[in-house]
Amino acid sequence: MISWRKHYKQTLVAIGLLLSTSASIYGQDGDPKNGEKLFKANCTACHALDKQVVGPPLKGVVERVKTEGGKDTEWLHKWIKNNKEVRESGDKYANEIFEKFNKTEMQLFPNLSDKDIDDILAYTTNPPAPEPAADKKTATQGAEATAAPASNTTTNVVIISLLAIAALLVWILVKLRQLVKLGQSEDLAGLNETRVKSFSEVYKKYHYVGKGLIAILALLATYGVWNWIMWIGVYKGYKPEQPIYFSHKIHAGEQKIDCQLCHSSAKYGKVSEIPSMNVCMNCHKAIGEYNAEHYMEPGKDKAFYDGEIQKIYAATGWDPVKQQYTGKTQPVEWTRIHNMPDFVYFNHSQHVVAGEQAIINSFNKKNPTNKIDVVCKACHGKIDTMNVVQMANDFTMGWCIECHRTTEVDMNNGYNKEYFKNLHDKLKKQYPKDGGKITVDAIGGLECGKCHY
After folding, report:
1. Between 20 and 30 A from 186 (CA), which of 94, 180, 201, 346?
2. What DSSP character marks residue 110?
3. Range of the domain at 410
4. 417: which residues sit within 8 A by CB, 6+ positions away?
5. Residue 359 gets which letter from DSSP?
């Protein structure tokens, strides 16, 4: 009996040591939940758990390096912190990996502690089960339950409308029958005696009223034609469908991407160009699917957004499986939204560089409850809230002139301070309004040749 207990205890100790060793080898001594956070913050730009992105899939990486290269977690620690140093040491397996993935330099992570790396490896070895999402079936049933009363209401309205039309038709038939009977009676002759024989008699009797109505109609018609002519070429609210769906709300709003990262010539060029597809690929080489499930537009799902990313790959000729360009590209025919007429000169750099702070200050002064933080929004509206970009302003000559008349020149701007240093006093005397404040119209903002040449 004593012997059995002794062997039993020894067996338990051996199993415990084996499990602890196995856990250490396979990264299970870390915290998978914390590892998931660290993985998303540091690794997802180049890696996914279950598929190749820029680098290989990382699910089961501890077991894989052990099987393929005979490496342990200590080697993985060194590789993650400074893979370049490991390769330069002559490590055969490290250099094989480097060659296999097109000699793509992996980012160094000296900032990650051993505990952080253990947590990440624990996550890749045994990812925690995702939290249960809301029951879609229940949500659908709730939506159907909500939609049911609306559907019933619509049906009731249609039925009532049809009954009303039927009642009106019956009433008309009754009246027609009465008229037929009246035409067959002697009373009709008496009515004919008092009835006006022609339109000319009516006009003679009420010609002053008729002339007045004609004059009013002529004025209204003239105003309508004039108003129609004045709004030719004004497309405020215009938001065409583009060949590839691009949401500024997701990119500029949710992800806080700066406007000039994509529209690089808006600040220093005359025209703010449409970004090339290579600009998109700077990010979407590593982002092959839509994972921001916390934000989706009504009527759109993950499959829709993933499909639009695939359109980017098709346009640039990118093969996401082989992680290389095929050379087969497809041009994207974007629909232009903002387009100045050929006879209008407008320079983006002049407004963004020299007029940036002045325009922001002027806009915020006129719109205290709807302030802006970047100059782009003064003309283009709050782009970071738009899923589909639309023309936010009139972009008429009157709209531009009004801006020039009300925007105060920033005389503290380095350019203006130097350029107008000999004109300050003269301008303040010439334009004494608002305590000598100088608006754009005072420095040539209303001269025809500034915009038309």
Report:
1. 201
2. T
3. 348-451
4. 411
5. H
CA angle, residues 438, 439, 443, in degrees to nearest 5:
85
Amino acid at 90: G
Q: Does residue 407 contact residue 362 with C-beta atoms inside 8 Å?
A: yes
| pLDDT higher than threshold 90 for residue 205 | no
Same domain, 17 and 51: yes
Q: Is residue 164 part of a domain?
A: no
197 pLDDT band (50/70/90 cuts)?
Answer: low
User: In the predicted model, what is the mean pLDDT of the chain?
Assistant: 81
Q: Of the candidates 204, 260, 242, which has an alpha carbon nearest to the alpha carbon of residue 389?
A: 242
Mean pLDDT of 81-107: 84
Q: Which of 125, 147, 177 is the last residue of a domain?
A: 125
**Quick one: tokens of 190?**
């008496």
HSE, side-chain direction, 13 A CA sphere, residue 438 = 19
What Cα–Cα distance (Å) separates residue 13 from each residue in 16, 25, 26, 44, 414? 5, 18, 20, 40, 77
- What are the tens digits of pLDDT across the range 9-23? 555 444 444 444 444
Predicted local confidence at residue 95, as pLDDT: 85
Work out the pLDDT band at 386, boundaries 50, 70, 90: very high
Are 110 and 61 in a shared domain?
yes
CA distances from 368 to 271, 298, 435 (A): 30, 31, 22
Among 51, 39, 50, which Cα is nearest to 320's? 51
Segment 346-351 mean pLDDT: 90
Q: What sign does the CA torsion over 277, 279, 281, 284 have? A: negative
